[in-house]
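Final report, closing paragraph on structural work. Over the funding period we assembled a curated collection of sequence-structure pairs, and we close with a single example.
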Amino acid sequence: METGVNTQTNLETSIDSVEQESRNEQAFYTLIERMGKVAYNERDKGAMFERLMCHVLAIASPYSERYTKVQLYKDWAAEHPECTPNARDIGIDLVATLIEPEWKGPNKEARYVAIQCKFYKQDTSVPKAEVDSFLSASSTKYFAERLLVATNKGWSANTEQTIEYQEKPTSILSLEKLKNLNVDWQQYLQNGTVQQKAKRELRKYQEEAINNVIQGFKTHDRGKLIMACGTGKTFTSLKLAERQVGQHGLVLFLVPSLSLLSQTLDDWTQQSIAKMTAIPVCSDSTIDGSARPLDSEDDSPDSILADHDLSCPATTNAKSLADKVASAFERYETRSDLGLTVVFSTYQSLDVIHEAQELYGMKDFDLIICDEAHRTAGAYLFNDLKEKEKKKASKGNRGKPAAIEPSEEDLLAPQGADASEWDVEVESLFTRVHNAAYIHGRKRLYMTATPKVYGDAPKKQEFLGDAVLYSMDNEQIFGPVFYSLNFDMAVKLGCLVDYKVIILVCDPKYMSDTADAQRVADFSQTQTARIIGTWKALNKYGAKEHVVEDNHPMKRAVAFAQRIDIEGMPLGRKRDMTVASKQFAAKFNDIVTSYKHHVLERGQEALAHNETPSLEYQQLLDHEGICDCKHIDGSMSSVEKSNLLKWLRDEPEEGHCKILFNVRCLSEGVDVPSLDAVVFLSPRKSIVEVVQIVGRVMRRAPNKVRGYVVIPVVTSCTDAAMALLSNNPDFKQVWQVLYALRSINPNNVLADLPLNKLDSRIEIISTLDAPIVHKDTKQGKGEQLDIGLQTPPTEVLDQPRWDFGEAAAIEEHIKSMIIKKVGNRREWEDWAQDVGEICS
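Its predicted structure, as stored:
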């Protein structure tokens, strides 16, 4: 356990690190802006940018590990006249020379990377003709790869498709990725010196984690590292790998998505002690998005990036992978400055790894690290698997079946990490990593913030031999827990900010009556109320638990919907009740604008009659609460998705809040530390997913006090509705979130049944049709309090009293219901068994 001094040190280190990163980012954008202003003309601006990139690519990771030299095209052409007929600019701006493992192969002349630099305004789209000329000029046999460095955000669909389907690997270094290179932009801004940023240092708890894992590996060949989101799992695992396997070891790092692969590859190469040989691997199905074995939805978190967004070209070929690894180890014989050889792969690409080892003799891994290891938990009913195999065989399809995602009602069940006990053909792409006979490695480390554990019902099926179960509490498969740092401790250490849950209760009739009919056409009362409730929560209207340092409206939020679109759904109640990301993004502002007009109109009427207007009216005068809404989903191009994430990270206009709507693609592996809130508009697939989402909003950022979890609940204020409130479908996400929070803070009591007390981090706000009544009477000592007042007065109050009436009563009713549901230990155990999936 950390001491108070160590906790304070961790907090100060965390804050300093975040602020330093922020200053470096600001220096980068200042540099880009300054270069645009001081250039004499467009040609001069382009030349300045080319010279800067020539220096940057020579020292920044992972490019400096892959290039021996970076030159201006004219210098390279003069040095290698055999490779080009003349030294004139033909669309190539820079040329990099690859290190041996990259060009060693059948075409030994292809040892160069053609680089084009485009210093455009951010809102400019690169003309396809310019890209075509670059691709044509670099099509000669001497160029093995291409790299496009561009400061703009816009790429046409045709241009991106052209880049994606090139035979030669073609990568894009975007403005966002350029900003995140390990370059000290502040230093360059001050004196024009290009140098790397100082590498990060391990914190005390990270040192403890590494020591525990190394100690654990002395007696076990596999084990778990449990660390809350935002506590530096990626960096910790790098330093662990360097100590565990030595400078010249071979490591396999597995992730569920290209987005995470890209982030990890960049971070590891930037923070490694010695120059790392990074080899990204992804299957064709990973690239085109067709392999989503654990995700039946059409908005997968596995599809944020395309392969051309990776800093290093990915291989999809087993022989090529084996050759690259062999070449890397050959270089160890002559180069003492080289570090780890690391294969970064998606779980969907494990068949490429398997073939490289089985068919082409690739070495066994010294260490296999499974990131987001909860994705490797799974369950399979034997009968279902046999039926799927029969169907595949009848169609002549020998492909590998996808995992069967169990329902909450019948989560399944026997483990099988041994190939002799379990046929690899029926394992999912994610669970194959457990099989030591399929992927050869000396040690396996499973990293996650949210272990996935199955309950008694599926374990009984496992015992009866009806199913196969990969549950993370099975030490035979996952090993013991080597180290654990939960969310609660991470907050105390200052690695994360704390959370606050806002449950905002809305009356559909009251809300929709305040909105203009034309603006809410094709939108149900329920959805209208949900939008207005979300808007109120993001602006903290009605919140009672304000603190002095956190009373500002929110600036950035991510909202999670039920599906992408309702187009094509038949008319009816199901369509009306469906929360669709595209429709909410499109209608949000129209509905809120109509509602705000209504509030202002009523406030002005009150003033005209010498009455006190509503508190919301006063707040609206001070802060208009404008929301800028956009939608993102997995079908968009990688450039579109990257631009939307950049849009979310960028500072909004004064008085504005950005909301990015999605279904699932932002639930995992997306890092936006400045995010203020996540909004649950519909229930999630699992408790693990809820924890992952909440973890997004707890990341530390400059001036961030806490992260908000918003749950708009739509219900009527009638007695009948109140009696059935616990069965309201909207409360499913309330229970999901509260149980998830309970699981990540096992030592905290969110709801205390004996004391009838709710944790201060949970706030219930009612906006039901229960008008606040202004009373002329004064309240004296001994008079009965109205519902909702916190403490009795100690003296006669000479100011008006307010009767919150039914709204406060509803809040109390919901509070009591939550305390009873969440505060009862027996109900928690029953619920966990019913759902069959908990986080510990």
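The chain is about 40% helix and 15% strand. Residues 377 and 474 are 10 Å apart (CA to CA). We thank the funder for supporting this effort.
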